[in-house]
Specification:
about 100 residues; mainly beta; six-stranded antiparallel beta sheet; two-stranded antiparallel sheet; elongated
Length: about 100
């Protein structure tokens, strides 16, 4: 998986199409990512102590990694990611402007 935690991405499909966010978690075995503020669900939480009220919270849910595109830092556009060998190390590059992605 070429996306990493902390990357800025844009949703390319689904109910949040066109929205931007930061990756909070990556699950490579399932090919899923969690994006800050996107794909929110309502979850009912029970009261933990007597006298405390239960509540409904909004929580981010995972989405398929293929439905998100990385936003390049150099050209500020959603792009695909390529890999290049640089002194024996794999480096991620932007497919649109060939800039190195940090």
């Amino acid at each position: 998986m070429k996306l990493k935690k902390g990357d800025n991405v844009m949703m390319m499909s689904g109910k949040d199409k066109g929205k931007k966010g930061k990756i909070l978690a990556v699950f490579p075995s399932q090919d899923k990512i969690v994006i800050e503020g996107l794909n929110l669900i309502k979850k009912a939480v029970r009261a933990r102590k007597q006298g405390q009220k239960g509540q409904i919270i909004h929580k981010e849910r995972s989405v398929n990694a293929a439905s998100a595109a990385l936003i390049c830092g150099a050209c500020s556009k959603p792009t695909r990611i390529g890999l290049r060998l640089d002194n024996g190390n794999k480096v991620r590059i932007c497919k649109k402007c060939n800039a190195e992605i940090k």
